[in-house]
């Protein structure tokens, strides 16, 4: 079925865009590094804590804003703002210097995952500007598309934080530059490409409105 192949392509894009977000240095990643020194499987519980705030947020966006996505000016605005932010973050990933230090944290990994996510303003900004675009696209495939998007995104979080904590536990260091750089270049490039795509869709929408006005 043609729609199935495009759905699979979309989910592949979700994996790369999600990686570009989850790999960004921030409080959740720092917490994962710290807990990884104590438990190689801490990443699983970091992802659970992260999901406890993230999944309800996704559902709120889906339930509360899905009807707004049908309004053309809103779609245009989301495309222009979200796409621009994607490009900005993607370009920034080419300049990242991964220099994280691990420290002892006397709380559960689930608690750390929840608190570091809930207290990070960039987390909400990412979902409002970028995540909403992915939700919007997933809705084109119906409820199945949305559910698969939700599962795929969380599994990316789970896989990444588990890899981080296992690596830290075994070596007390993050991956070497030979692995970090290609991953960041790949995800940064993907984010820029998605951003250009969404911005271009927004520009086309503006031009279409101007023609009909």
Automatic annotation (TrEMBL):
Pfam families: LysE. It comes from the Archaea. It is a multi-pass membrane protein. One of its GO terms (cellular component) is plasma membrane. It is found in: Cell membrane. The keyword Cell membrane applies. InterPro entries: LeuE-type. The chain crosses the membrane at residues 46-69, 76-96, 108-137, 144-163, 183-203. One of its GO terms (biological process) is amino acid transport. The keyword Transcription regulation does not apply. Its main location: membrane. Keywords: Cell membrane, Membrane, Transmembrane, Transmembrane helix. This is Lysine transporter LysE. It comes from Candidatus Syntropharchaeum butanivorans. The lineage of its organism: Archaea, Methanobacteriati, Methanobacteriota, Stenosarchaea group, Methanomicrobia.
């Amino acid at each position: 079925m043609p729609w199935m192949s495009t759905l699979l392509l979309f989910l592949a894009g979700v994996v790369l865009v999600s990686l570009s977000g989850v790999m960004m240095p921030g409080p959740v990643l720092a917490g994962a590094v710290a807990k990884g020194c104590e438990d190689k499987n801490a990443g699983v519980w970091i992802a659970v804590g992260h999901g406890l705030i993230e999944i309800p947020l996704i559902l709120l966006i889906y339930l509360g804003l899905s009807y707004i996505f049908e309004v053309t000016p809103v779609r245009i605005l989301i495309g222009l703002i979200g796409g621009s932010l994607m490009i900005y973050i993607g370009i920034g990933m080419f300049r990242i210097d991964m220099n994280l230090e691990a420290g002892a944290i006397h709380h559960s990994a689930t608690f750390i995952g929840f608190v570091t996510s809930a207290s990070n303003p960039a987390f909400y900004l990412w979902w409002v500007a970028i995540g909403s675009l992915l939700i919007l696209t997933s809705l084109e495939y119906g409820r199945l598309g949305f559910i698969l998007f939700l599962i795929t995104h969380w599994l990316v979080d789970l896989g990444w934080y588990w890899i981080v904590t296992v690596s830290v536990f075994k070596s007390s260091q993050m991956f070497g530059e030979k692995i970090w750089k290609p991953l960041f270049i790949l995800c940064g490039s993907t984010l820029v490409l998605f951003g250009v795509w969404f911005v271009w869709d927004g520009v086309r929408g503006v031009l279409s409105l101007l023609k009909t006005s």
